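Appendix B.2, paired examples.
Example (i):
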Amino acid sequence: MRRYMVVNAKGGCGKSTLATNIAAYFASQWENVNVTLADFDPQQSSMDWLSVRPEERPAITGINAHADGLRGLNPHTDFLVMDAPASTHGPDLTAIMKHAETVLIPVLPSTIDMRAATRFIEEIRNVGKVSRKEVKIGVVANRVREHYSIFQELEEFLKSQPVQVVGHLRDAQNYVRAYGAGLGVWELAPYQAWQEWQQWEPIAQWMESKKSQP
């Protein structure tokens, strides 16, 4: 079983968007796999997305991990995608990281988010399981607008961090459309989402490669 967790203590950075699209990627792009989406956040945004997922689309099993933890996890799950809650620090961060194998941290192009991410990345790197190199971490630049001046600041920030940057995702309405329909951007029509597909390719390649495994 491969275990992916999307985490950032800063709220509003797109954790649920990233988690739902990762789950949809594995469900739609791989054949005959069992995908589980576990939502540790009390807001249950990932479970809301899953509740409107069309029946004809590849199945994704949902777990309300905020209430039940991972007790209901099917042992035959191939890909477990976990949506972590905001404001996770200290013992709570250590506890939730016990479930993780590969971690993705979304970071927004804003001064507030970059400063918060600096502190969070430092904190997560000091968690025992991470410091022992039992977890691989990748950063995703999220909701990027390349023509804005803050984009260059984000690029400089990412270069300064001691973790790998695995991809950039643009600020696009396709994510809103996909979420509202219970889909991932991989499941939208090519004429709509080809740019998103291109941007997801390096992230998908990293998630599937040994580079993302401890």
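Example (ii):
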Amino acid sequence: MRIVLVLPPAIEPVRTPLLAFAYLVAALRARGHEAWVVDAAAPAGPEADRLCEAVSRLDPALVGIHVKTLEVQATYRAARQLGDLGVELVAGGPHASACPDEALDHGFDFVLRGEAERSLPELADALEGRGELGQIHGLSFVERGLHRHLPDRAPASDLDTLPDPLSALDAFDPAAYGAAGVAVPAGLLASRGCPAACTFCANNVTGRRFRCHSPARVASEVRRLVRDCQRPAFSFFDDSFAVGRARIERLCRALDAVGGAHWTCTAHPAHLDRDVLAVMQRAGCGGVDIGLESGDAGMLAAIGKGITTGRVLQVLEWAGELGMHTVVNLMVGWPDETEAQLETTLAFIEQAAPLAGAFNARGVLVPHPATELYARYHERFDFTDWWLRHAPIAYEPFPQAWNPAEVQRAYASDAALERNFFDHSPRRLALMAEVLERKADHTFRRIAEWTNGSSPAVPVPAAGAR
């Protein structure tokens, strides 16, 4: 079967291939299917009014569409248009996994919930008459006018059984990303799943169960990415990279043996100490993205973060001693967040700024479906199905040039602040805006230091990388 995977147009262009699609294409081809990608979210991808034409040229029998909450309205419009081609449509990704009934009501024939490297090839087999729809775990579909949801599929326990995603890069049109040759993803996965239980996290695809590739498999992919694809600097996209000290030591020994790789990752501060950071640094890690979320101890307890600000400051100090770049993620706008708690977060920013390499852009809380936070508060604050009822949250694009005006515009302007999901008072909204501005100011100050050579050279985040 010929299958085309589609990333619909996005408010913010993304500049590298979606790694999840590379995994899916590799899995489909391993089962004998033909698979290609149309990325309308890429800078030079097809415009919305040309999407059907681009897909039709590939003559698919099945079209799979990645569905994200923030872009769901445009995605459903695209699905209606693609449905006119007479092909069957399957939805996947985070929003479809969280809201399968909604996707079926908006033109999709099938929804694959969770990880789909096994279920998508099984669906293609069944549509060719080589399998039964009723046997595909994780599948939702319409049967005799009713929605049928088959049992969830357990996440793949041995990630090494999944085909190498880098084998599928020819499925992406390099011209869509402005690439001269094969388009290359901005990073890799060493693991899936996050064992933390944060109330705001929409982890609907990979889930809470932590699983990892073997060190040998990761090293093999890194070697290929660095040497064959000529991308020596990249990110690990793991939800929580540093889980398991012994695992990290084994993995970093394998990465160190590859040589020539420079990488960043996201890690929970509870998994980081000076020895672990040193092992990572020797293996090529130049930067760590640290999820703190609030500078207030009471708020950290309320959202299930399981960490203290003191621990984060210690991690920042260790990383600085090792010459590693750090990004501290802070969020504001929590339900019932008080002025005093916001003032505490502002004070923490000033305390962390001399140690941190940067702070995250934006950061106003958005309640995503299928999270504990959404379930608890959507009726109280009347934002049920907000992604359908209101205009999309239109974020400012990331900086095109790293200057004060661009950083302030992209980092300190957060469209979710105006949406005000949790009915914050004007005074609290003003404090939230001040948090955004302080993060932007400190981040640009660091960028200026790197430019002037007064700080260790670290890679500036690539706008739109994924």
